[in-house]
């Protein structure tokens, strides 16, 4: 029975909103479209035609070995064994298993790519993977083991190994044998046909899904930082002049103009009343004054990365590419994940800059010389340490993000006896983003708490209407910091709030 929130995978037409919906689990069941079945059937016929030729051509991965062994011809009777051996030998991943939401996203992107009809993979195989997921059985995919070159070989091998009765799946938090899961879902284990194993393993879907996961969280962190930065600006009685639209129009960067506009919108009624601040300082520190320039540059890069990842999620990245119309098998390198590696490296830098700017504003608020407020935002400081060590925590997290920002894409360790002599390291580049976004979210949570405290220490100060709800949400979770108390829980509560809340700024 079809439900309104059933999701039909249409090859080549995945949007960012749909990908986020899949990651967030906002669907009932996943299905392949009829178009996908037609594409897959035609592709399988193309492979069958090759195998039944009187003197079959040597086609990589169909009747030859893999990697450095590409020149080794395989006997026809061993072609299925070749594909099974490939999957089993590539199950070399290590570390913790990817979470179920990420496995779902990987699976959808992988299935969409193969369903374009250039892979030689049967519809039944992909339908079986969806059936496992729809019934709550998620392949156990270890986090580590891919260099993002010939595709995400090891993690994708773990993803599809259960289809041949090998490996493990997670069901309701428990690790069980793949054969047991197949039995529970009334699925017979598959004998792989020529090219199927290779097409299932080639591809950038793991690194792409991990980068998308990072993108979605960093987008949330970015919006939260716009709010916290505006709260800090107002709490510190910052100048409004740097947000005058004429300044940003003269530079012309779209992101910069958007951020300035959004900050003016958050200040709303206050901005219209006080375009010239009563602040005695001629200019504020950069962390207040240059928010449009820094955050705008971040926004431009986020949007660039989003476009890259949406393209990659709809790409054909297996090898060889089987062209049904002409019967050709084109051997190339679409599995090389350099676009994803660059995108992930950019997101890492963006994430670090967001947290770095936020920490500098926290530092301004806790410093009485800069803020004019009680030292470390607490009355009777000395007896009370207030926000002193919360700022230290923020500094520690920013430093960690900085060290994680080294571009992974410039690293390369040749593999496969130098056949694969340049790799992207996209998978690691993408995997680190989630932890970096978490770090940034904690920093922003501390800034929000500090700004709320700064407002409370100035009881006659007017909070702009657009920010009052945020202030109220914070105070509904965390009370005023009257005297020193156990503070970690407060930071955690606000961090969870800002990641779950949609500020709907952009």
Automatic annotation (TrEMBL):
Main location group: cytoplasm
Q: Does the keyword Lyase apply?
A: yes
- Family to which the UniProt record says this protein belongs: Belongs to the PAL/histidase family.
What lineage is this protein's organism placed in? Bacteria, Pseudomonadati, Bdellovibrionota, Oligoflexia, Silvanigrellales
Query: Broadest EC class?
Result: lyase
Q: Which UniProt keywords apply?
A: Histidine metabolism, Lyase
Which pathway?
A: Amino-acid degradation; L-histidine degradation into L-glutamate; N-formimidoyl-L-glutamate from L-histidine: step 1/3
Please state what the protein is called.
Answer: Histidine ammonia-lyase
């Amino acid at each position: 029975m079809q439900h309104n929130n059933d999701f039909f995978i249409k090859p080549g037409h995945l949007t960012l909103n749909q990908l986020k919906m899949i990651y967030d689990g906002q669907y009932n069941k996943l299905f392949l479209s009829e178009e996908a079945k037609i594409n897959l059937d035609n592709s399988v016929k193309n492979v069958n035609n090759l195998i039944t030729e009187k003197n079959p051509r040597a086609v990589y991965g169909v009747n030859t070995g893999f990697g450095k062994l590409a020149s080794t011809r395989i006997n026809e009777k061993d072609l299925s064994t070749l594909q099974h051996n490939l999957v089993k030998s590539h199950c070399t991943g290590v570390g913790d298993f990817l979470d179920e939401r990420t496995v779902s996203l990987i699976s959808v992107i992988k299935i969409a790519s193969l369903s374009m009809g250039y892979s030689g993979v049967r519809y039944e195989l992909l339908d079986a993977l969806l059936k496992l997921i729809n019934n709550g059985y998620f392949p156990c995919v270890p986090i580590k083991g891919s260099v993002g070159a010939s595709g995400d070989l090891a993690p994708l091998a773990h993803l599809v190994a259960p289809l041949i009765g090998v490996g493990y799946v997670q069901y309701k938090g428990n690790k069980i044998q793949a054969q047991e899961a197949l039995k529970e879902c009334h699925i017979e284990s598959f004998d792989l046909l020529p090219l199927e194993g290779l097409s299932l393993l080639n591809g950038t879907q793991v690194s792409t899904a991990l980068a998308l996961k990072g993108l979605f969280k960093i987008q949330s962190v970015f919006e939260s930082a716009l709010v916290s930065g505006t709260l800090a600006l107002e709490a510190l009685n910052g100048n409004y002049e740097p947000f005058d639209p004429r300044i940003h129009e003269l530079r012309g960067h779209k992101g910069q103009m958007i951020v300035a506009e959004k900050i003016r919108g958050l200040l709303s009624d206050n901005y219209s009343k006080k375009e010239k601040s009563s602040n005695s300082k001629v200019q504020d520190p950069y962390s207040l004054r240059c928010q449009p320039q820094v955050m705008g540059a971040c926004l431009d890069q986020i949007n660039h990365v989003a476009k890259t990842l949406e393209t990659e999620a709809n790409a054909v990245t297996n090898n060889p590419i089987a062209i049904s119309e002409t019967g050709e098998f084109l051997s190339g390198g679409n599995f090389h994940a350099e676009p994803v590696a660059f995108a992930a490296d950019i997101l890492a830098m963006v994430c670090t800059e967001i947290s770095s700017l936020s920490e500098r504003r926290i530092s301004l608020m806790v410093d009485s010389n800069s803020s004019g407020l009680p030292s470390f935002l607490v009355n009777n400081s000395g007896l009370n340490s207030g926000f002193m060590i919360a700022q230290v925590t923020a500094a520690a997290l920013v430093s960690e993000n900085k060290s994680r920002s080294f571009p992974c894409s410039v690293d390369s360790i040749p593999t496969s006896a130098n056949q694969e002599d340049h790799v992207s390291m996209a998978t690691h580049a993408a995997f680190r983003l989630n932890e970096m976004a978490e770090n940034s979210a904690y920093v922003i949570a501390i800034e929000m708490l500090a700004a709320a405290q700064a407002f409370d220490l100035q009881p006659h100060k007017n909070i702009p209407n657009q920010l009052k709800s945020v202030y109220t949400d914070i105070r509904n979770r965390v009370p005023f910091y009257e005297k020193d108390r156990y503070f970690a829980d407060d930071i955690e509560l606000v961090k969870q709030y800002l990641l779950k809340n949609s500020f709907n700024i952009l």
